[in-house]
Amino acid sequence: MKALVYHGPGSRAWEEVPDANIHEPTDAVVHVDTATICGTDLHILGGDIPEVAPGRILGHEAVGTVTEVGSSVQRLAIGDRVLVSCISSCGNCRFCRDSSYGQCLGGGGWILGHLIDGTQAEYVRVPFADNSTHHVPDGVTDEQMIVLADILPTAYEVGVLNGAVRPADVVAIIGAGPIGLAAIMTAQLFSPSHIVAIDLAESRLEAARKFGADMMVNSGRDDPAAVIGELTGGLGADVVMEAVGLPQTFEQAVRLVRPGGHVANIGVHGAPATLHLEDIWIKNLTITTGLVDTYSTPTLIGLVASHRLDTTPMVTHRFGFEEFEAAYDAFANAAETGALKVLMTAAR
Fold first, then answer.
1. Are 169 and 111 in a shared domain?
2. Which residues contact 93 (CB under 8 A, 6 or more apart)?
3. Are 345 and 323 in contact (CB under 8 A)?
4. Which terminus of the chain has a lower count of CB atoms within 10 Å, N or C?
5. What is stated as this protein's family in its record (predicted)?
6. What is the DSSP letter of 149?
């Protein structure tokens, strides 16, 4: 089979690799019908996640068709159409029993495209398949479903829920890439009074407007603190979400939040950021970090299936599997291409 293989920082290739197959009785093999690229994959290629070894197949998001199941798999059958979650769950450890699947101690957590071969391939082995896949409802397309593998539950859990968004809150979201846009989309479920999107790219700020932000701030031209201060009588935002993963944007998030407010870090960081405790110890802030647990995925699937959430505008570029290299180039140069989520589909 062919797959997108990581060969060290800055190096990747679509090439022949050994076929995916069953290793454990709880495994399934899924033919990947649709895959996508995550910002985390760019962090890997940038050398920010050294645990990823050269030779690893990248990717942790897919919708596909089950082609083989292990002897202990009970919920899946050959031919089932499934979402492959970015998080694998053993289902038995103390964290999985608490729905904290991202911290799984039994061999799960974020392993696809990280510690084991991932989904940017023609086939993928899915460990703990009963716990780590979701059936695709009738009437829901691959394009609608693929966003539920990672970015929608990540934005919802690590941003909106960790940030404790409440009705009438002023919510600021730094970064209007796919994660930031998913945060804008799901924050609206809690009826904030204002959603302020902050970014450097006008194309992404325009996307933020379409996804439901009512104030857009180009931080290269305008001062987000002044805009939010005017909106809140100088208090600061109730909730600030960091969706970029840079030291300066995390530090900006802390500056923008009001006393007693919440800073929810969603971004993947590859460098240290300074936490100015000398300034904020007195401000009663709550600062959260997190790897998505995907406990919300069934809820989000229900919202998409019932047309309460429309994820289709998230996909802006489409490629065939043989165009993986071009897809990465488009996604990595999003400021120029306007790419949000790029979709790769297998030949039918």
1. no
2. 104, 105, 106
3. no
4. C
5. Belongs to the zinc-containing alcohol dehydrogenase family.
6. T
